Amino acid sequence: MDWLQMTMGLGKALFDLCTPYGLLLISIGVAAGILGGALPGVSTTMTVALVAIVTYTMDPLWSVILLSAVQVGGTYGGSISATVLNIPGTPASVPTAIEGYQLTKKGEAEVALGINVFTSFMGNNLGIIMLLVSMPLLVKLAMMFGPWEMFWFGVFGVFIAANLSEGDKLKGLIAATVGLILGCIGLDPIDASPRFAYGTTYLQGGLPLIPVMIGLYGFTEVFEGLTDIKVSSHPLKKTSLLEPARMWWKYRWLSVRTSILGYIIGVAPGIGANVSCWVGYDHAKSMSKEPEKFGKGSIEGLIGSESCNMANVPGAYAPVLSLAIPGDAPTAIMLGILLLHGVRPGPTFLITNPTWLYQIAVALFLSGVLFVLIGTYAGKGLVRLFVSTPRTAMAAIVAVLCSLGAYAANGNISDIYLAFGFGLLGVVMKALGFPSAPFVMGLILGSDLLDVNFRRALLAGKGSFAPFFTREVSIALILFIVLILLAQYLVPKLRRKRAKSRETILE
Amino acid sequence: MPRPDRELFIACFVLALAVYVFFASIQMQGRGEFIESPGLFPGLISVVLCIFGIVYAVRSLLQGGRLKFGGWGRSLTGLLVSRENRTLMLGILYPGLYVSLAIPFIGFHYSSALFMAVIFFFYVQRWKRWTAPFISAGMTLLLYLIFNKLFMLQIR
Q1: Distance between A394 CA and the closest CA of chain B, angstroms
Q2: Residue B38 to residue A404, Cβ atoms within 8 A
Q3: Same structural domain, B93 and B31
Q4: CB of B58 less than 8 A from some CB of A
Q5: Do B86 and B60 fall into the same domain?
Q6: Mean pLDDT rounded to a whole number for chain A
Q7: What is the DSSP string of B6-34?
Q8: Measured distance CA(B117)–CA(B121) in Å, rounded
Q9: pLDDT for residue B82
Q10: What is the C-alpha separation between A31 and A24, in angstroms, rounded?
């Protein structure tokens, strides 16, 4: 690793971004992210999708910097509504809601929010360091990949997304496969023949990703929250700024460990913060000397889930930049924006554009500094606003934002109908126990990664399927995928067996 | 409807979808050889979906699922009458009217103001009713300023 080049690159990036325009853009992104992440019903993904609209006319690098600031802000913002209202602003904030809300009920909302800020900041910084260190290795690895390996990576992404979904794994796989089929709608990427377009020009362009995501995530929440007139609020007690810092310092090593876990999960495609927060929470609980406090307002649980959640953000950039595989839904939107600008990430991307990694790393760091400032001081005001706004009113505002976001993406009213339709699909899927995350991952990976690389590989291999299974890197990848899948099935079984034997010994 | 029966219906739907996609894929005309056919990938994926559908159907059958075509009316009435689902139906109806009728006919901003005013007026009990039009108008103005003026997007 060339440390000198990295130091110079980071210094130059810091110099480039610490301009009035750069700081303003990052501040706007962080503020929008915190607001979007904190608003019940508006997730980080949806905020990134909404802000993505304004990046269409921007420079590609600045677009990614703005969206990364939104993602960092949103990831932190999700913990605000989770802590104060017991409504996770994002799915990744559920463990925070479990512990944070209990602290709020005890009158310690500001301590909980302060811990969220410090922990998220440190998790973000550790994730950035790991991104800078591991990225060159990932790029070298990526250079060995042909369309065969890219295809297997796509398969890996879909399997991971399906397997790490909550509940029924088979339903996750079905949802992912349906997503893959829907991803094929539009013009064929190899010879531009229309597929499943039924003679309409609208479908020839493929299913637009942003309205689909707004529908699945935003409208689904709107339908459930719009006529729910139950309102809950809690008083907030004032606390010193030093108290959360002291608490974080007490559990600093837990924060470091869960940050490393969060980064690793972030690098793996298709898993994302929704899973990493639970991994961090679970790790905190298993290592805790006071596991009985979990679920009753545990500081360790809060630190474990939040640091893992935030370190996941820099981790998600590694596969998207080096392999063009989105690590999570917000980076999938970023990938969409990059493709829209004609920028195509991949194995050679960081060799031809070396400044991007440093610029993004510095943007993530500055976003962290800004959310500490905004989260500490303006967070209190936001908390008061949420406490005073009924959930129904929030859902109505979110419905308008969803329609606006879907429409503004292409200026096509059909996109609003599409978003609404996918909102209905989201409700049906939720009611029937089908997870939406594998479906979305299937949609993204199907159109951009699997289909193209599968056909390219077949063409390059003159119609032979053999290279998929005989190339050395392919074999290694297949083994890796099989091992991961086996581990996912075997580890919980082993844990249950151990727990049973422990219970028997205790009895 | 009991859960295994419902799951069996879904499995049948998944299988029907897989069969449809498969036949639609093999009918796609390519410009070259078989491996260049645009229907190759969706066709293969439909086979995978078919396998998952069969596994799902078998699992439902083993759990006691049966295809019963009677009793749909009763299940549907029960679905619509329950308090939670009625609330959900309203939650879908209002945005549905807003999206399908209001936006195309009176434009985005007017329809948004109207939609928010109606929701605030009837469902937000914590706010005084006379404030609903003002809050919704203020919100719409804010959105107009942000999207149309600040970001210069053509939202009409």
Answers
A1: 10
A2: no
A3: no
A4: no
A5: no
A6: 79
A7: HHHHHHHHHHHHHHHHHHHHHTPPPSSSG
A8: 6
A9: 66
A10: 10
B76 at A interface, C-beta within 8 A: no
Distance CA A225, CA A282 (A): 30
Question: For a pLDDT cut of 70, what percent of chain A falls above it?
Answer: 82
Position B74 in a domain? no
| Range name among A48-62, A257-271, B32-46 with the lowest pLDDT average | A257-271
Q: State the total domains in chain B.
A: 2
Q: Which of B23, B45, B69 is the last residue of a domain?
A: B69
For residue B6, the chain A residues in CB contact (below 8 A) are: 432
Kindly report the number of other CB atoms within 10 A of residue B125's CB atom. 11
Select the residue of B36, B108, B125 nearest A459 (Cβ to Cβ). B36
Residue B121 resides in a domain:
yes
Q: Whole-angstrom Cα distance, residue A124 to residue A311?
A: 5
pLDDT confidence of residue A50? 79
Give me the mean pLDDT over the A144-168 stretch.
70
Is the pTM for the entire model greater than 0.80?
Answer: no
Expressed as residue numbers, the domain containing B32 is 3-69
Residues B65 and B91 in one domain: no
Of A228, A399, A411, Cβ closest to residue B95: A399
What's chain A's length in residues?
507
Q: Look at the block and give the residue holding tokens 């980076």.
A: A331
- Rounded to a whole number of angstroms, the distance from the CA of A31 to the nearest CA of chain B is 14
Give the pLDDT of residue A233.
Answer: 47
Contact A459 B95 (CB under 8 A): no
Phi first, then psi: what are they for B155, rounded to 5°?
-100, 120
Separation CA A396–CA A223 (nearest Å): 9
Q: A413: which chain B residues are within 8 Å (Cβ-Cβ)?
A: 103-104
CB-based burial label for A502 (10 Å; 0-12, 13-18, 19+): exposed
DSSP string, B100-127: IIIHHHH-HHHHHHHHHHHHHHHH-TTS
pLDDT tens digits, A367-396? 989 888 887 776 676 666 666 677 788 788
Same-domain pairing of B83 and B113:
yes
With pLDDT > 90 as the criterion, what percentage of chain A qualifies? 3
Residue in A396, A427, A455 closest to B115 by CB: A396
Segment (H or E) for A194? strand A194-195
Q: What's the confidence (pLDDT) of residue B16?
A: 95
Rounded-to-integer distance, Cα A186 and Cα A201, Å: 9
Grade residue A232 by pLDDT with cuts at 50, 70 and 90: very low
Task: For chain A, say whether B126 makes contact (Cβ under 8 Å).
Answer: yes
Say yes or no to pLDDT of A290 above 60: yes
- The whole-number pLDDT of residue B50 equals 95
pLDDT at A403: 86
Choose from B7, B20, B25, B41 for mutation: most chain A CBs within 10 A: B41
- B63 shares its domain with B91: no
> A160 CA to chain B: closest CA distance, Å?
16
Mutate to test the interface with B, among A221, A226, A415 (most CBs of B within 10 A): A226
Examine residue B156 and state whether it is found in any structural domain, yes or no.
no
